[in-house]
Design a protein that fits this description.
This protein is of the alpha/beta class. It is built from 14 helices and 11 strands. The protein has 3 domains: 101 residues, no CATH class; 48 residues; 190 residues, Rossmann fold, CATH 3.40.50.300. The strands form 2 sheets. The protein has an 8-stranded mixed β-sheet with strand order 6-5-7-4-8-9-10-11, with helices on both faces. The chain has a 3-stranded antiparallel β-sheet with strand order 1-3-2, with helices on one face. The chain is elongated, with a radius of gyration of 25 Å.
Length: 366
């Protein structure tokens, strides 16, 4: 007969530690989900993890049905273990950049219920920045046998990433593409790479539009590329400027629009971006993230930018990222396809259409 229990804690790792201490390592995870409690009008909510665990009666570790005095001692031990786990997590946060696994702190506990090939997959995914829950689900699905599992891993990662959609252009039918995102993620350089590829390699009629008028360097950078490529550049500062640029580029095959980086917490700047996009009416809006970003900041930015019609994700600085698993975490959060990856500063070479990327190598380092 199976015993089924639920554990609620602040983190996945803490809930898993509770389950292991009470039921032992033979327990199996049935479900993991996020809960929210408290708060006022949707603010200041506390995020918790609820873990549903099952185990056969015969496999429950000795002491689970112990006498009250023994259970009290066990609870005290559990509190001590939880305190140590919290301390470990805090120390890992302070170490920060030492390693992604150290930063997460609780990853080794999650792997205790895995064996063989599944354990290897879990450890590597977490070490490269993939969140524990999807890493655990994938590792459990692959099982413990290594034979034939490499191909299964590649297939499962491809399924999670989903179909990738780089820009496609039909000559004679204008397509407008906007790049938006936080400051410093490399939107301007990415735009230049796209312009070079579509102009030099495909011979299309391309125009550049920039609304990044706050940074002189950004305009000068794009002007240099535009002159080299022989394509027009329009600098727009107001919605009326944008409307005029759209009118003058009606004959183009592709219009690539660079937008200034916005602090997603600045409501006024985000409103200005929304007004600009309303005039540009882009066919594709690519939200650009750096894979070196802080995950918490990246998720906040994602939630802020999604209402602006985002329908593609572009990731930059793959060559600099020690934790490229952020790519999968964001992809799973928003369910929008990946369009491009950049892996260097060279224009136009260091731009990789996502449908040609080896995501097993990116996420597993192999």
């Amino acid at each position: 007969m199976m015993q089924v229990k639920k554990y609620v804690a602040r983190t996945f790792g803490e809930a898993l530690l509770q389950a292991k201490n009470e039921l032992g390592s033979e327990a199996m995870i049935v479900e993991s989900k996020r809960l929210y409690t408290g708060g006022f009008f949707g603010f200041f909510r506390q995020q918790l993890t609820e873990l549903t665990v099952a185990i056969d009666d015969e496999k429950i570790r000795p002491g689970y049905m112990a006498r009250p005095a023994e259970r009290a001692a066990e609870k005290a031990a559990d509190k001590t273990a939880a305190h140590l786990a919290n301390l470990e997590r805090e120390m890992a946060t302070l170490r920060g950049a030492i390693s992604r696994m150290a930063e997460r702190g609780m990853a080794p506990n999650a792997g205790l219920l895995l064996k063989g090939y599944g354990r290897q997959v879990f450890d590597e995914l977490v070490a490269r920045g993939v969140d524990e829950e999807p890493a655990l689900a994938l590792a459990q699905k692959l099982g413990t046998e290594a034979e034939g599992s490499d191909e299964a891993l590649r297939r499962e990662l491809s399924r999670l990433i989903g179909p990738c959609t780089p820009i496609t252009v039909q000559p004679g039918k204008r397509k407008v593409v906007a790049l938006i995102g936080p400051t410093g993620v490399g939107k301007t350089t990415t735009l230049a790479k796209l312009a070079a590829q579509f102009t030099l390699e495909r011979g299309l009629n391309v125009a550049l539009v920039t609304s990044d008028t706050f940074r002189i360097a950004a305009i000068e950078q794009l002007k240099t590329y535009a002159d080299i490529l022989g394509v027009p550049l329009y600098a727009v500062d107001t919605p009326s400027d944008a409307a005029r640029a759209m009118k003058e580029t009606a004959h183009c095959d592709l219009v690539l629009t660079d937008t200034g980086g916005r602090n997603h917490r600045d409501a006024q700047r985000m409103k200005e971006l929304q007004e600009l996009l309303a005039v540009l009416r882009p066919d594709e809006t690519h939200l650009v993230f750096s894979l070196t970003a802080n995950p918490k900041d990246a998720f906040e930015a994602l939630d802020a930018y999604l209402p602006m019609g985002v329908n593609r994700l572009t990731f930059t600085k793959l060559d600099e990222a020690s934790s490229p698993g952020l790519l999968l975490n964001l992809r799973l959060r928003c369910n929008q396809p990946v369009s491009y990856l950049t892996n260097g500063q060279s224009v136009p070479d260091d731009l990789l259409p996502a449908d040609r990327a080896d995501f097993t190598k990116i996420l597993m380092g192999a």
